[in-house]
Amino acid sequence: MTLSPAQTLDQAVSSWITHDPDPVTREELSGLLQAHLTGEAGATAALSEAFAAPLAFGTAGLRGRLGGGPGRMNRAVVIRAAAGLSAFLRDRLGEGFTVIIGFDARHGSAQFARDTASVVTGAGGRALLFDEHCPTPVLAFSLRRLGADAAIMVTASHNPPQDNGYKVYLGGRAVTDWGQGAQIVPPYDEQIAAAIAAAAPANEIPMPQDGWEAVDPRVIEEYLERAVKAAHTQAAAPLRIVLTAMHGVGGALCRQALEHAGFDDIVEVAEQVDPDPDFPTVDFPNPEEPGALDLALALARERDADLIIANDPDADRLAVAIPDPTAPGGWRQLTGDELGSLLGEQAAELAAFAGTGVLANSVVSSRLLRSIARAHGLGHRQTLTGFKWISRVPDLVFGYEEALGYCVDPGAVRDKDGISAAVRTAVLVSVLKQQGRSAVDLLDRLARDHGLHATSPLSIRVEDLGLITTMMERLRAGGAPARLADSPVTARFDLLDGAPDGIGGHLPPTDGLVWTTAADDRVVIRPSGTEPKLKCYCEVILAVEGRPMVEVRAEAEQRLEAIKADLRGVLGIG
Ligand SMILES: O=P([O-])(O)O[C@H]1O[C@H](COP(=O)(O)O)[C@@H](O)[C@H](O)[C@H]1O
Ligand SMILES: [Mg+2]
After folding, report:
1. Average pLDDT of 337-348?
2. What atom of ligand 1 comes closest to residue 402's alpha carbon?
3. Using CB atoms within 10 A of its CB, is residue 404 exposed (0-12), middle (13-18) or buried (19+)?
4. What tens digit of pLDDT does each residue of 52-105 get?
5. Binning pLDDT at 50, 70 and 90, where does residue 6 land?
6. Domain boundaries, the chain
7. Over 90: is that where the pLDDT of 479 sits?
8. Is the pLDDT of residue 200 over 90?
């Protein structure tokens, strides 16, 4: 259904329009086609983009702009994706395979979820559809809890309002390894993609109007119970917590989870508490983006809070900020690596007590977790980006990635979970408070024990995806710079060749570059698999050696800035 060399753009568009069951995208494409035929360059460009290639599985499933055509998110694409997945499951399991379907509150999500339930039913599967929007971790939990063979979450997470997406998980009888309940990786993603490519045109796929079931809402209660239990203890010292759902679907559940864990002083960011697909108060509903926590920070200052908890719109990510008199404005947002290290240390203490367990983080996350694991006599694994990789590590007790993702209870949710991680964080902060300490004190202790590991990202957002390919090509052709922050670059890995996984094996090949310097600084560069961005992840490690922490942190900051300046030079972005 995509543009073959022999097909002209207008033929491909006309044929797609004939098979598109959605009058809205049909009309949009017809308008663009008319404009294209009269020579409007903008229309030609828009159609070329929408028909260049079908949406492909990236870091977290399919994700793209809403609109007509095979390279966009729309009902025709979703119907064919559901048909491909159903064919894949039917081939492996025969009829009667079970698929659970969840959806967020974005534009199109509820319709895409209903279409999916209909297609699964029409293909002889048993479809279980959530009645209402739900957080991604609830869907991931339900897959394992109900023993379904697959699950689909219709969400584009924290992307802009114009996007939507499709996260695909396998479980039950469909896979039997450690990946049970996780999002798909090769070879399943390739097999499912091939089944999608082979699917009939969307309007020829059987779509009964009923026959699917509602997910029993008790599973949400069970999720809640489990998320609270995962913290092991309850609130110690009371905390005033400012909570934001970032206009997403996690607000009510996160609040309840915190309340069940004993936190009753919760102040919600009223403007962001209800789901709103337009995310009106933020430029990007991504707690990683500057400004996303502004309302929460203002409220926390006004109400003299102890902690800010922010989920992304599908509530699988968690951002945290804490009071810090040395930080500008008196509050400090922890990086994903900082919170990952704090939760990692806590998980390591618990696991070391039990005598077993593995900690894991992605190749773009801090190396501190490995030192923490070693210090507690535990295993550590390095994985590729994304929880589809982190969550399938055997004997995992805790996994995180720098992109604000944490998995504190892999037995329940084989994915990141912003709600169970929020409860654990609140409990940790409250236990520390009871001891007269803060999260910053614990971070300082980790720095003294293992060296200060400071990380900082440099993200380059582009309009034209081709620019990312060009930048990666240029970096590969030109090699690494000789020096970064004045230290010679001593090792270069191309992740296409597969980097070491930390236990004598190699990671599957992926597009990315890793450079390390004599000073043990490290840079990883890779294209995002969910957004049009090139991402550079920088890390420096500094020995503390009795120096005041402010001094060491300032030095780390400077070195990170120097690395980023060098990278801007290499990338030619001034
Ligand atoms: O969007 P979410 O919250 O599901 O998050 C998704 O995207 C993040 C960024 O990926 P990339 O760097 O490829 O853009 C990944 O780290 C994460 O595992 C994935 O689930
Ligand atoms: Mg998310």
Report:
1. 98
2. 16
3. buried
4. 999 998 888 999 999 999 999 999 999 999 999 999 999 999 999 999 999 999
5. very low
6. 57-216, 239-447, 451-571
7. no
8. yes
Average model confidence (pLDDT) for the chain?
Answer: 95
442 pLDDT more than 50: yes
Give the CATH H-level superfamily of domain 57-216: Alpha-D-Glucose-1,6-Bisphosphate, subunit A, domain 3 (3.40.120.10)
**What is the C-alpha separation between 423 and 438, in angstroms, rounded?**
16
CB 498 within 8 A of CB 511: no
Residue 404: HSE in the Cβ half-sphere, 13 Å Cα cutoff: 26
Q: Cα separations (Å) of 57 from 118, 164, 183, 236, 395? A: 22, 13, 11, 43, 27
Alpha carbon nearest to ligand 1 atom 6, residue: 60
Dist. CA 33 → ligand 1 center (Å): 34
Q: What is the DSSP letter of 61?
A: B
- pLDDT > 80? residue 500: no
Tokens of 519: 């000073």
Average confidence (pLDDT) over 539-550: 96
Do residues 197 and 87 touch, judged by C-beta distance below 8 A?
no
- Right CATH number for 239-447 from 3.40.50.1370, 1.10.760.10, 3.40.120.10, 3.30.2310.20? 3.40.120.10
Classify 468 as helix, strand or coil. Answer: helix
C-beta separation of 385 from 526 below 8 A: yes
Residue 439 confidence (pLDDT) above 70:
yes
530 alpha carbon – ligand 1 mean position (Å)? 6
Identical fold for domains 57-216 and 239-447, yes or no, is yes
Number of other CB atoms surrounding residue 545 within 10 Å: 8
Residues 6+ apart with CB under 8 A from 455: 335, 337, 365, 366, 402, 537, 538, 539, 560
Confidence of residue 390 (pLDDT cuts 50, 70, 90): very high
| 157 belongs to the catalytic site | yes
Residue among 86, 109, 118, 157 flagged as catalytic: 157
102 alpha carbon, distance to own chain's centre: 16
In the three-class reduction of DSSP (H, G, I as helix; E, B as strand; rest coil), residue 65 is classed as strand
Which CATH architecture describes the domain 451-571?
A: 2-Layer Sandwich (3.30)
pLDDT tens digit sequence for 17-41: 999 999 999 999 999 999 999 999 9
pLDDT in tens, 398-408: 999 999 999 99
Report residues whose beta carbon is within 6 angstroms of any ligand 1 atom.
Answer: 59-60, 157-158, 312, 316-317, 385-387, 401, 403, 405, 528-531, 535
In this structure, which residues have their CB less than 5 angstroms from ion ligand 2? 157, 312, 314, 316-317
CA distance 460 to 480: 18
